[in-house]
Amino acid sequence: MKSLKTKPRGSVLATLAGLAMIGTLPLAQAAGTSTADTGWHGKAEAPHYQEEIFPPWQHGANDDALDKGFKFTVPEVDDMADFHGNLDNPKLILYIGGNYFFAVAPLVKAFEQEHSKYKGHVFVVTIPPGLEVKAMKAGGTFTSGNMTFTIKPDAYLAGLKKVKSLIASGMLTGPAIAYATNDLTIMIPKDNPGHITGIKDLAKPGIKLVMPNPAFEGIARQIEASLKKAGGATLEQKVYDTGVKDGSTILTHIHHRQTPLFLMQGLADAGITWKSEAIFQEQAGHPISNIDLPAKYNTTAIYGGALVKDAAHPAAAKAWLAFVQSPTALKIFEHYGFKPYNKS
């Protein structure tokens, strides 16, 4: 892979003027400038284009379509990285919490080897689970850029607590299936410009953070719990309250892609993610590393899934929910740092 040189933040922000993935904060606030600024005050310039750092990072492997036709993917400009497959005649539609989008390709491939009738007909959505719930309430209709389409799910997979709550509300049909667990880590650029050594360093003066948005990303609850374990309410408030207000913390909108993207672009020094996400970035050859959290500070997530009420393909959904508990699927998850769920 080409070496990626860290650019001045002002120059990086110029490349992001047309990027729709900047998150919930305005560019001016994300850069730490006054929110009273209403215009672009940087020097306009052509982007220093580095295609390899922009998603999709798997070069089409997550697309289950047998005939991909004319390929039109322009990273940073025309790129739908969280919608996988062919909208024409899907036989299984999955809404999967986005923090294991990188495992979609091997999981779908292995599933289709066991269930060949679904080959080429699996469609997967991997936006954050809270946003997937909003999509379900909107009838499964999405608009991305100038494209609107409807793709209603057969199964929903996210945090086990979220799945159980949706069963209770009637959106999903039980039982809830638990299958894997994941731990938190601190994701950093490989050269560690912030000299981060542990979770308490996230409160150091001058450190720029990129963190999942509590409004719709379940991981934020686990992160807040870990921050409180390590530094009490003071550390949690520094990261998620005063940091957001003073611009030292950027809140993401698509956390599983934006955190490493912002780190590689020099917009942040660190961000807490799931361990699996950092492992994938390192396996992909990106200049990303991570710092483990001690067990006493860490928080473990349990992943679960369930059938969607009135699913169009209930048999396929049940087959998938059985598959993710299988040794074949768990071995794939293990490759990215997940662990099998053990009820005891």
Automatic annotation (TrEMBL):
GO BP annotation list: molybdate ion transport
Keywords tagged on the record: Signal
GO MF, any single term: molybdate ion binding
Entry-linked Gene3D superfamilies: Periplasmic binding protein-like II (3.40.190.10)
SUPFAM superfamilies found in the cross-reference section: Periplasmic binding protein-like II
Entry-linked InterPro entries: ModA/WtpA
Signal peptide: 1-30
Keyword Cell membrane: no
Domain of life where this protein originates: Bacteria
PANTHER family: MOLYBDATE-BINDING PERIPLASMIC PROTEIN, SULFATE-BINDING PROTEIN
Protein name per the record: ABC-type molybdate transport system, substrate-binding protein
Source organism of the structure: Acidiphilium rubrum
